[in-house]
Design goal:
Shape: elongated
Largest sheet: 8 strands, parallel
Mean pLDDT: 90
Helix content: 25-40%
Distance between the termini: 49 Å
Number of helices: 17
Strand order of the largest sheet: 1-8-7-6-5-4-3-2
């Protein structure tokens, strides 16, 4: 065990209390474990407020506007746009949006949300910011848990309740003074997950009544896991308890705002929705203070992968990520769910083989069903959803390094260069690739693989080896047999040679045997090189493209041939590629012969 030299002995875990000693969760007959996620909640991004507060370099108006436009295009209907009383930049951005209403930059179905503490002067400043917006949600918050009341606020329960009541009353009066604007209210008992449940209900029910909530004009009560303290099931219990005990429940939108201190923000949000939450606040890709807010992209695509419409358009996830990275000036991790550069990539040989077979099966099943592959049911190993649905191509699904296997190498040679290796040949090619990647320690790109294949398998059949054909021709005998006539070089000796057989390759083998090069063709395959790499669009099947025409790197009209030959006591594979099937076949046999000699 590694020891901290500054602290001898085991880590002092006794300093920390389990959640049940910090907050009481009443016993009740919970129902969320048997619930199902069947529709999307209302997603509310807080990137422009909560996420922005967590940035070392907060966004300026231009970056905020670009982010806001992205959120609108993606389909969000409520967007928290700032904390106007906290900074001039936030105030100015809300005023900027108000000035753009006439231009349509704030669509009629999108409602901005603004955030304010429960202090009269800050509430008034917030209402100044939203002046001119036809719609807005004013979000009131105050910390409510015992440790915050005692340590931070220095107020008891009654004093906090009075502070909230006074701020909420002021909000109602300021909203009434703007009869032409649709201003709704939201309340967050910050640190909800550490607050006594009866106190949460007391505060929320009091504001529901004060604001005179109704089904056609509901209030939002937002219950944050401000700092995660327990497993996600505990948060779900807390949410369901409030859900089932709120007054005027049909007049309340129950919202959650999970953070990610324990790394379980996504699980907390999903279980909270099962427990009765109708609305989820979070950030795109999880930005936020400390370990971040819950990731709305992951939540939405988790639903999508279960066959549920997330009500968001993430069909070009790389474009979404580009905007978020630009505005936040933070990278999205390459292993981030759904959006990372490597999330659809397999290096492991067993994974690659399963994915390659799964993609081929998907294309076959779609063809047999008579439907486009992009509309066919998805069931490919290791890929929970089709990368093409997110605007991704298949080029990066399989990448080769020293951990890779025959399936991955064969997949890349087929999809990028049109070389469909016979099943029995794949282990041989994989060993050749692994020898190179083991030595280099680097990834082998599809072009690297093709260059290696060219050197190892194609060149030996084109005169680069101890056995070569200076010239050759074939014709048929009167009895229908084949004759192979050539000038053959074996080592330093060049001489005419001739062979006969029931086919061109058998005649070639006979000619080689007469020159004391005994050859037996064990296995043979050939195909047209009709596909190549696809770039810049999402593939529907290996070697094809969805949304635009495929760009092929192979030459039109070429054929590939593969031969496994026994030469004396050695066996080797060879390959050939040419515009003539026969020439490619002859090259494949010569390649196998030379590779057997080299072995």
């Amino acid at each position: 065990m590694i020891r901290n030299p500054q602290r001898p002995g085991p880590m002092p875990h006794h300093r920390y209390r389990p959640f049940q000693e910090r907050v009481h969760v009443p016993e009740f007959d919970r129902r969320w474990p048997s619930a199902r996620l069947e529709s999307a909640p209302l997603w509310v991004p807080v990137d422009l407020r909560d996420g922005n507060q967590a940035l070392a370099e907060p966004m300026d108006t231009d970056r905020k506007h670009r982010f806001f436009d992205l959120l609108v295009r993606t389909g969000f209907k409520e967007i928290e746009v700032g904390y106007p009383s906290a900074s001039r930049a936030d105030f100015d951005f809300v005023r900027h949006l108000a000035g753009l209403v006439a231009s349509g930059a704030v669509p009629e179905d999108v409602t901005p949300v603004v955030f304010t503490p429960a202090r009269p002067e800050l509430v008034e400043r917030t209402f100044e910011a939203v002046d001119g917006l036809p719609r807005a949600v004013v979000h009131l918050y105050i910390a409510t848990s015992p440790v915050w009341r005692e340590t931070v606020l220095g107020r008891d329960r009654a004093e906090v309740r009075r502070t909230v009541h006074e701020a909420a009353t002021l909000m109602a009066r300021l909203a009434e003074a703007r009869p032409g604007a649709d201003i709704r209210f939201q309340f967050s008992p910050e640190t909800f997950n550490l607050t006594e449940p009866d106190y949460v209900l007391e505060l929320c029910d009091g504001l529901t009544a004060l604001w005179d909530a109704s089904p056609d004009r509901p209030v939002t009560h937002n219950l944050p896991a401000t700092v995660e303290i327990a497993t996600p099931n505990v948060y779900a219990d807390q949410i369901e308890y409030v859900h089932r005990h709120l007054a005027r429940r049909d007049s309340v939108i129950l919202s959650v705002h999970p953070h990610n201190d324990r790394g379980t923000g996504v699980a907390c949000a999903e279980l909270a929705v099962l427990a009765g939450a109708q609305r989820v606040e979070g950030c795109l890709f999880g930005n936020g203070e400390r370990t971040g807010n819950v990731d709305l992209v992951t939540l939405a695509l988790n639903l999508y992968a279960q066959g549920v419409d997330p009500m968001l358009d993430l069909s070009d996830i790389d474009a979404v990520r580009d905007v978020v990275e630009h505005c936040n000036r933070l990278p999205v991790h390459p292993r981030h769910p759904y959006a990372g550069d490597l999330v659809h990539t397999a290096f492991s040989g067993t994974h690659q083989d399963a994915i390659s077979k799964g993609l081929a099966r998907h294309a076959k099943d779609a063809a047999e069903a008579g439907i486009p592959p992009e509309l066919a049911p998805w069931n490919v190993p290791y890929l929970p959803l089709d990368p093409a649905d997110l605007g991704r191509g298949y080029e990066a699904v399989i990448r080769v390094n020293s951990q890779s296997g025959k399936g991955g190498v064969a997949h890349l040679l087929r999809t990028h260069h049109g070389l469909d290796l016979p099943e029995r040949m794949r282990p041989d090619v994989s060993r050749a690739v692994q020898a190179v990647t083991d030595d280099s320690g680097c990834e082998a790109t599809p072009d690297d693989l093709h260059a290696l294949f060219h050197t190892a398998y194609l060149d030996p059949g084109r005169g680069e080896g101890p056995v070569a054909l200076e010239s050759w021709s074939t014709d048929r005998d009167a009895d229908g047999g084949h004759r192979f006539t050539c000038v053959l070089r074996v080592g330093d000796r060049t001489a005419p040679a001739e062979g006969r057989g029931n086919g061109p390759l058998a005649a070639l083998a006979d000619a080689l045997a007469r020159a004391e090069v005994p050859v037996d063709v064990i296995d043979f395959a050939e195909h047209a090189v009709t596909t190549g790499s696809t770039r810049g669009s999402a593939g529907a099947t290996p070697g094809s493209a969805r949304g635009s025409a495929a760009v092929t790197t192979g030459s039109a009209g070429e054929a590939a041939a593969y031969a496994e030959c026994r030469v004396g006591d050695r066996t080797a594979w060879g390959a050939g590629v040419d515009t003539s099937v026969l020439t490619a076949s002859v090259q494949a046999v010569l390649s196998a012969v030379n590779r057997a000699y080299a072995a």
